[in-house]
Write a structure and sequence with these properties.
It is a single chain. By secondary structure, the protein is of the alpha+beta class. The chain is built from 15 helices and 30 strands. The structure holds one RNA strand of 77 nucleotides.
Length: 573
RNA sequence: CGGGGCGUAGCGCAGUCUGGUAGCGCACCACACUGGGGGUGUGGUGGUCGUAGGUUCAAAUCCUGCCGUCCCGACCA
């Protein structure tokens, strides 16, 4: 491709509405263009990247034996009534509309309903199973708050696959195969990632695994052991109970703590280690109006774990201050388990092994010190309700946990019969009886991967694309070709040679631009390899090579450019 | 959905407090110079100041409604 015939529209200024680096660089580099909040056009340069990722995904899905199909973007509301999700998603997410006959429709945020409808008519016999259908297609979700450019867009491109089985064992084997396929996809994209145990959320089903690209801007926290044998979303990672060390109990003391309403305030006011303090959160209960959740002062509540407690009402809701006042008799900030008799108390494992700790005295402006469980408190329930922190022991016993941020780019689920049962998707089994199919579903955010790849691969000059997904693998920049026929001839010959060798190369033949502009732009756009052709080195029959990632250069003999690039790109000649 | 910020040329912004000829930088067009790190000069193009209404002799500026957009939170297969 010649730059003179290809739209490149970079801008120097950082767009004011782009917060994170991938969004800024995609806009600055002219890869995408915003049409509305969370809705973007893919410009020619950006589309090349998107297509690269799609092709890797398609390739590996096909290799796994899955079959590609394409389902409609618009879906009849009736189908969603059948699965029960029309009402469930009544507020937000589902963008609904009506056709001219006043019939309900929605833009597909996902395609379980449509694929299950296809499966129940296409699949009749257990002999046809298992089958795994996939598509790469535009989805629309009316996110309450689109943000981060293509990382949380409303309209986005996703690969979604749905498998059908006649047994859980069969589902399990496809699930494992998809695990391997996703691993292969992300490996080919040259991204650093982790597959982690995850909550299956509102899509339902049992086991699920998320794939996260590691990046500091990630919205999720993932915990994993150093040896890689354990990895889970922090939502799910189990906090083990520490060993209790038997300490002699001291006498309970009530101390005045005027206006000390936060843990950090109490810690500095009383000059005690934060690990010896307790905080108490009051939430709405399922069997009682209120429930107390107790954590060590330096720990945070894991809402997902708390929500699963039988005592707690779903969804987890912090109690209103007025209810706390009337039931407990003090404001939040002075609550504590000691003497708290009018609601159940659930204590985190780590808090439950403390001796002589500090907590609120259930009276504004007072705390207790040297509190001890049982002696000073009513009956308690011990549970795992906190988020793990870095350094916690790994739940599988292998070393300590490390915590990193990740961008969720893939999620695979074992759905079971959540959709097939209500939608009556059955096949006849060997005995000729109707049997509800078991389903799995597997998603990869294709457009999100574009952003995730940049979050993980950039520097202060711009994007550093992994070669496998770069819009072009090589850029050839002639210097002052309009003045030097030699430069023009060599750069054109190199360009043709590289193309012939199957390398995707962009020849920056735009005459009106000065070299500095081309260099800066090349670094912004992030071509992995750069060849500069100028009279300076041409005298020695050489050109200048620069690797984008290291920005280190070297002079290469013209005759060896193709061979060296092929080997840098890992291609056999 | 709660809290906050911002809407002025394609992009980034000033002007709004204190009402009175709509500005700057980048980009774009023309010409000249320049030609190895977003170069220089000269001359230009481009704006119903988000929108609807109100106050006023007069509104980008004051008042009210609406819309859009971004941030924090809630939410998120």
């Amino acid at each position: 491709m010649k730059a003179s015939q290809f739209s490149i529209s970079t801008i120097k200024e950082t767009p004011s509405d782009a917060e994170i680096v991938s969004h800024q660089l995609l806009i600055k580099g002219g890869f995408i263009k915003k049409l509305a909040s969370g809705i973007y056009s893919w410009m020619p340069m950006g589309l090349r990247v998107l297509r690269k990722i799609e092709q890797i995904v398609r390739d590996e899905m096909d290799r796994s034996g899955a079959q590609e199909l394409l389902m409609p973007v618009s879906q009849p509301g009736e189908l969603w009534e059948e699965s029960g999700r029309w009402q469930l998603y009544d507020e937000g997410l589902l963008l609904k509309f009506k056709d001219r006959h006043d019939r309900d429709f929605c833009f597909g945020p996902t395609h379980e309903e449509v694929i299950t409808d296809i499966a129940r008519t296409e699949l009749r016999s257990h002999k046809q199973l298992p089958v795994n259908y996939y598509q790469i297609q535009t989805k629309f979700r009316d996110e309450t708050r689109p943000r981060f450019g293509v990382l949380r867009a409303r309209e986005f491109i996703m690969k979604d696959a749905y498998s059908f089985h006649n047994s859980l064992d069969c589902l399990q084997s496809t699930f494992e195969q998809m695990h391997a396929t996703y691993t292969q996809i992300l490996t080919r994209m040259q991204l650093e990632f982790r597959a982690v145990d995850a909550d299956s959320g509102s899509i339902g089903g049992s086991g699920s695994i998320e794939f996260h690209v590691l990046a500091d801007s990630g919205e999720d926290l993932i915990a994993f052991s150093a040896d890689g044998s354990y990895a889970a979303n922090i939502e799910l990672a189990e906090a083990l109970a520490p060993e209790a060390n038997d300490t002699p109990m001291k006498a309970l003391t009530k101390v005045e703590t005027p206006n000390q309403k936060t843990i950090s305030a109490v810690v500095s006011f009383l000059d005690v280690p934060v690990e010896t303090t307790i905080k108490t959160l009051i939430v709405e209960g399922s069997q009682t109006p209120l429930v107390a959740l107790v954590l060590r002062g330096d720990h945070t509540l894991n809402t997902l774990k708390a929500e699963k407690l039988p005592e707690v009402r779903q969804p987890l809701t912090l109690a209103a201050e007025a209810d706390i006042q009337s039931t407990i008799g003090c404001a939040p900030g002075s609550i504590g388990p000691a003497g708290l008799n009018n609601c159940p108390i659930v204590v985190d494992r780590s808090a439950g092994v403390l001796y002589n700790f500090v907590c609120g005295a259930n009276e504004d402006g007072f705390h207790f010190t040297n509190v001890n469980w049982h002696r000073d408190t009513p009956d308690i329930v011990i549970a795992d309700i906190r988020n793990v922190v870095s350094g916690d022991p790994s739940p599988n016993g292998n070393g300590a946990l490390d915590i990193r941020k990740g961008i969720e780019v893939g999620h695979i689920f074992q759905l079971g019969n959540k959709y097939s049962a209500p939608m009556k998707a059955t096949v006849l089994d060997a005995e000729g009886k109707a049997q509800t199919m078991v389903m799995g579903c597997y998603g990869i955010g294709v457009s999100r991967l574009v952003g995730a790849a940049i979050e993980q691969n950039h520097d202060d000059k711009g994007i550093v694309w992994p070669a496998s997904i770069a819009p072009f693998q090589v850029v050839v920049i002639p210097i002052n070709a309009h003045k030097s026929p030699n430069v023009e001839r060599v750069s054109l010959e190199l360009y043709e040679q590289l193309e012939a060798a199957g390398i995707e190369v962009l020849l920056d033949d735009r005459e009106q631009l000065r070299p500095g502009v081309k260099f800066a732009e090349a670094e912004l756009i992030g071509y992995p390899h750069r060849i500069v052709v100028g009279d300076r080195t041409l005298a020695n029959n050489e050109v200048e090579y620069t690797e984008r990632r290291t920005l280190e250069g070297a002079n290469w003999p013209i005759s060896e450019v193709t061979t060296r690039l092929l080997s840098a790109l890992g291609k056999a000649q």
